[in-house]
């Protein structure tokens, strides 16, 4: 949610993205994979501020800033450049990013940062949320940026450009665990091993998504993350982490998010999630461990 900090400085949160499901439906002749993913967001994330009227640039700080890579390659600046190419005279400014999410973990931190930059620039320049140039810049910036720009639970399809209307989810609480090593999205898809033109399934209907907790868990059990198996072949520790999370008291489901190494455990009760996070963080101090609510 965007808020004014003072007369000039604007702020937006860039929440972590969680892929509750991730089905790979096929590989197109052009090499891109067609996906179907139920995506939601968390109550934690990075923070991005924008000060209009000062030289355009980006400063990065925060607990995971060292993982963010070179500033010139940051998706915040890429998204800003892409929007500037489409909006003549776009007013820019100075960005300040506080990184709290791990990089390369499948939580879409960079994509969410880029989406926050687009929302802030839209506000400064008086662009409506449905301006097609925002959507074009988002998709060009990365496959996950459009759903992060939307910022609500949705089913994402295609290469990220097809979004369902917002979906209603029951109250869900999660423990997110980053084991400290990144996974390359490219390597995971290569390990999946689809040939161009190969199909693996058909999309589901939006109406098939249950809104009650038990029905949703049944849906999640039937629609997993197709990238888990190839990720585990590359990094067996991912499978060990999922098994550990599944044994936590109160855990309803444990899974990998996206194509990264971060895994999550779902709970019905926020206290159970908080207790599990405390236990894991104490026993594995080198891990990034957070308890959070999921956006409904």
Give an overview in words.
The chain is an alpha+beta fold and 296 residues long. The chain folds into 2 domains: 3-163, Ribosomal Protein S5, domain 2 (2-Layer Sandwich), CATH 3.30.230.10; 173-293, 2-Layer Sandwich (Alpha-Beta Plaits). 32% of the residues lie in helices and 26% in strands. The protein has 9 helices and 12 strands. The protein has helices at residues 75-86, 109-125, 132-141, 145-150, 185-192, 213-222, 228-234, 236-246, 270-283; strands at residues 3-4, 10-19, 23-27, 33-52, 57-61, 93-98, 154-158, 162-163, 173-178, 253-256, 263-267, 288-293. Strands 1, 2, 3, 4, 5, 6, 7 and 8 form an 8-stranded mixed beta sheet that branches. A 4-stranded antiparallel beta sheet has the order 10-11-9-12, with helices on both faces. Helix 1 (75-86) packs parallel to helix 2, helix 5 crosses helix 7 and helix 7 (228-234) crosses helix 8. The chain is globular. Mean pLDDT is 93; it is low at 1-5.
CATH architecture of the largest domain: 2-Layer Sandwich
Describe the sheet with the most strands.
8 strands, mixed
- The low-pLDDT segments are 1-5
Query: Please, what is the average pLDDT?
Result: 93
What's the helical proportion of residues? 25-40%
How many domains make up the 3D coordinates?
2
Report the count of strand segments: 12
Instruction: Specify the number of helices.
Output: 9
SSE inventory with pairings:
Blueprint: E1 3-4, E2 10-19, E3 23-27, E4 33-52, E5 57-61, H1 75-86, E6 93-98, H2 109-125, H3 132-141, H4 145-150, E7 154-158, E8 162-163, E9 173-178, H5 185-192, H6 213-222, H7 228-234, H8 236-246, E10 253-256, E11 263-267, H9 270-283, E12 288-293
Parallel strand pairs: 5-6
Antiparallel strand pairs: 1-2, 2-4, 3-4, 4-6, 4-7, 7-8, 9-11, 9-12, 10-11
């Amino acid at each position: 949610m965007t808020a004014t900090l003072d007369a000039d400085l604007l702020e937006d949160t860039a929440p972590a993205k969680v892929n509750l499901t991730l089905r790979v439906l096929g590989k197109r002749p052009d090499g891109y994979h067609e996906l179907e993913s139920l995506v939601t967001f968390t109550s934690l994330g990075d923070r991005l501020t924008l000060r209009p009227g000062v030289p355009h640039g980006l400063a990065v700080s925060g607990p995971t800033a060292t993982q963010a890579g070179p500033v010139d390659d940051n998706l915040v600046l890429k998204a800003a450049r892409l929007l500037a190419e489409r909006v003549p005279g776009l007013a820019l400014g100075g960005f300040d990013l506080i990184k709290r999410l791990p990089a390369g973990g499948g939580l879409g931190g960079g994509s969410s940062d880029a989406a926050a930059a687009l929302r802030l620039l839209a506000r400064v320049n008086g662009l409506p949320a449905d301006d097609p140039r925002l959507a074009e810049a988002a998709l060009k910036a990365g496959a996950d940026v459009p759903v992060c720009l939307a910022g609500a639970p949705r089913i994402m399809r295609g290469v990220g450009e097809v979004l369902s209307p917002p979906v209603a989810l029951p109250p869900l609480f999660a423990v997110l665990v980053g084991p400290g090593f990144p996974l390359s999205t490219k390597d995971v898809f290569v390990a999946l091993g689809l040939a161009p033109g190969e199909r693996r399934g058909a999309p589901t209907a939006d109406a098939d998504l249950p809104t009650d907790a038990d029905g949703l868990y049944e849906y999640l059990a039937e629609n997993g993350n197709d990238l888990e198996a190839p990720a585990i072949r590359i990094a067996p520790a991912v499978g060990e982490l999922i098994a550990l999370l599944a044994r936590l008291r109160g855990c309803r489901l444990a899974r990998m998010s996206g194509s990264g190494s971060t895994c999550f455990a779902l709970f019905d009760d926020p206290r159970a999630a908080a207790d599990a996070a405390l236990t894991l963080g104490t026993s594995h101090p080198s891990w990034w461990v957070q308890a959070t609510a999921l956006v409904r």
